[in-house]
Automatic annotation (TrEMBL):
Protein name: NTPase KAP
Gene3D superfamilies: P-loop containing nucleotide triphosphate hydrolases
Pfam families (UniProt xref): KAP_NTPase
InterPro entries assigned: KAP_P-loop, NTPase_KAP_P-loop, P-loop_NTPase, QatA
Region (Disordered): 450-475
Organism: Chromobacterium alticapitis
Domain KAP NTPase: 16-387
Length: 654
């Protein structure tokens, strides 16, 4: 049940209202030129709206008997292969001729318009003289200069291989403008408009509508060239453009294209004005609200099971649209509404309905109503669940818990990493601080509902009424983040769940069970403890705040680094860190002595026999250290044998 991320003509978002409005606007006064912008964030559904517009235009044209021609152009497909400006102009003319067979009889008009397009191609390839937002179309003098240049190429013996091709181009350019014709830029633009208008008349087209998609995916140069081509048609009668793009990306492209704007002109303001002059009527796609998101998730999952063409599914879409007319009243699709629409098919999609009910609220809270993010999230969620099933621990992975964790992974990555490191290093896979955060937020919500007047101040600061000096540094950090607090309030509560199966299935991004990964936020502390004696002295207070399991993990990592260095004749990096760590956590004394006893005594330097007075303080630990020293007297290196004579510790200090 993988959800395809393609544009669709099946409207699950109730965007047909936007498409219908645009179609009505296009057809209201078809003789007037018009440019409409369909704006929205990445993944908001712009391409699908263009599909609906194309369908709506075709339906209305068939009903009214009007000859309305709708052409589509995707600038992203031409990026890197051909000049986007020429590609759009030539694509419009070619599409017009292809779909209007009667133009075969208008040979002169067709020939004239293509000669003018060839002229623009030559101008582009022979010195960068193509028209821009400021310069317009090349002048007659420029064309003559191009022709002379190309003739010089033919006379060059090194260019003989392309002689016929160049001669053909020169003939075309020479025939386009006679040397005596000294036309200026406005006249040239007028000539192009006139030629194109004549082509429309001979094609008997009532209106030409061009749909331009994916401009916000293009590089700035491609986006600007496409927009400049639109400018060329901007005042042509019976011609309309619908441009789907994210305004912010287009504004960025304009700023990149015109980097040397006067200091008195804000580049951002200029970019906005540039777009506003080109787009006469902007439509912005609204983000989905909570109710709309939950309905969308249900339709996606049911549609994936039944197929978009299924009659029962189409009935469910009709039910959903009724609710989407007034989402602030209608509410999400409940089981009874789904059962009424699907009838006998309800049992087939029971799993999808359950999943929708479980994660719909979570997605509504986390994805901020972006359709593409919802689809990608659902696909990743489903694939991870299937992976857990295939590995044999699917029963340990609950979809609502996985969904909530994935929301943090996607939108609060640092919080997710902190939760993962704590859960992975915990003996039971739980994150104690997360459980506290979820409980505290429940208490705040209860208090605010029962005593709203007394907690007005707390309402403006979610952690004001529950601040606790005993909170861990991590919990304090989380409580100061509104985004983290809001995420913690999303059901279900997961702080008391064993999160290790969920982290294991998320290993496609990171292994959370390696030594360094388990340490997570403790890795920085461990790194500091590998420093010099002077550097580690100031860490004692920070180390005391570590929970015992955290201190144990840091201790093990440092011991591993010492062993891994394989240099014991001189004091390895990390020994001073072990001294201060064990001093802060005396329960580690026996672990320290176990570690010292495991070192190869014959290779040990004198460092191992001194400096432990601050960390080995218990009577039993002192006795064990003295026993180690006795053993080193016989098995140690020559220098160590001498050093241990003065090494034994006594209770109360060395």
């Amino acid at each position: 049940m993988i959800l395809l991320d393609n544009e669709t003509k099946v409207d699950l978002l109730n965007n047909e209202a936007i498409a219908a409005t645009i179609v009505a606007l296009l057809r209201e006064r078809p003789e007037h030129p018009l440019t409409i912008g369909v704006h929205g964030d990445w993944g908001a559904g712009k391409s699908s709206i263009l599909e609906m517009i194309e369908t709506g235009v075709a339906t209305q044209a068939e009903t009214t008997g009007k000859n309305v021609l709708c052409l589509k152009f995707n600038g992203w497909r031409f990026q890197g292969f051909e000049d986007a400006k020429i590609a759009l102009i030539e694509g419009i003319v070619s599409g017009l001729i292809e779909k209007q067979p009667m133009l075969g009889k208008a040979a002169d008009a067709v020939k004239d318009i293509f000669r003018r397009i060839d002229w623009l191609k030559v101008a582009k390839k022979a010195g960068g003289l193509a028209f821009t937002a400021f310069t317009g179309v090349p002048t007659a003098d420029q064309i003559q200069a191009i022709t002379s240049t190309l003739k010089g190429f033919i006379d060059d013996p090194g260019k003989l291989a392309t002689k016929e091709n160049l001669k053909s181009v020169i003939d075309g350019v020479d025939g386009l403008l006679k040397p005596a014709e000294g036309k200026n830029i406005p006249e040239e633009i007028a000539e192009f408009h006139k030629a194109f208008k004549e082509l429309l008349e001979k094609a008997d087209v009532d209106q030409l509508i061009v749909l331009i998609d994916d401009l916000d995916r293009c590089l700035p140069e491609t986006a600007i060239e496409t927009l400049e081509a639109v400018r060329l048609f901007l005042f042509t009668e019976r011609t309309a453009f619908v441009v789907a793009a994210d305004e912010a990306m287009i504004e960025y492209a304009v700023r990149k294209h015109f980097p040397d704007l006067p200091e008195s002109t804000s580049s951002q303001t200029y970019a906005r004005h540039y777009l506003e002059k080109l787009i006469q009527v902007p439509f912005r796609i609204p983000a989905l609200g909570e109710t709309e998101t939950r309905i969308y998730v249900t339709l996606l999952l049911v549609g994936a099971e039944l197929g978009e063409e299924n009659e029962a599914f189409m009935a469910l879409i009709d039910t959903a649209r009724e609710k989407l007319k007034k989402p602030w009243i209608g509410g999400a699709l409940d089981f009874e509404a789904v059962k009424t629409a699907l009838g006998s098919k309800t049992a087939t999609v029971q799993e999808a309905l359950t999943l929708s009910e479980q994660i719909g609220p979570i997605l509504a809270s986390g994805t901020k109503g972006n359709p593409r993010q919802i689809k990608r999230f659902l696909n990743t969620l489903i694939l991870r669940q299937r992976t857990a099933d295939a590995r044999g621990f699917g029963e340990d992975v609950k979809l609502p818990v996985l969904a909530k964790l994935m929301l943090a992974e996607r939108f609060l990555s640092s919080v997710f990493e902190q939760i993962a490191s704590h859960a992975a290093s915990s003996a039971n896979g739980k994150c104690h601080d997360l459980a506290l955060l979820e409980t505290l937020q429940d208490e705040v919500a209860t208090l605010q509902s029962e005593h709203p007047k007394e907690l007005d101040d707390a309402a403006s600061s979610s952690n004001a009424s529950t601040e606790n000096e005993e909170d861990s540094p991590l919990l304090k950090e989380w409580r100061t983040s509104p985004a983290t607090v809001a995420w913690a309030q999303v059901l279900p509560r997961i702080g008391q769940e064993d999160l290790r199966p969920y982290l294991f299935v998320a290993k496609d991004r990171k292994d959370y069970f390696g030594a360094v990964s388990v340490l997570g936020h403790l890795a920085e502390i461990a790194g500091k403890l590998l420093g010099s004696k002077f550097e580690v002295q100031g860490l004692e207070d920070e180390l005391k705040r570590l929970a015992p399991p955290e201190a144990t993990q840091v201790f093990k990592l440092i011991c591993g680094r010492v062993i891994g260095s394989d240099r014991f004749d001189t004091q390895p990096a990390g020994i001073d860190g072990l001294v201060i760590l064990v001093k802060a956590h005396p329960t580690l004394q026996n672990s320290l002595l176990d570690f010292l006893g495991s070192l190869p005594s014959a290779r040990l330097g004198v460092w191992v026999a001194k400096g432990w007075a601050d960390s080995i303080t218990d009577a039993e630990a002192i006795s064990r250290f003295n026993q180690l020293c006795e053993g080193w007297k016989t098995t140690g290196s020559p220098m160590l044998k001498i050093a241990v004579k003065a090494a034994p510790l006594r209770k109360g200090g060395a």
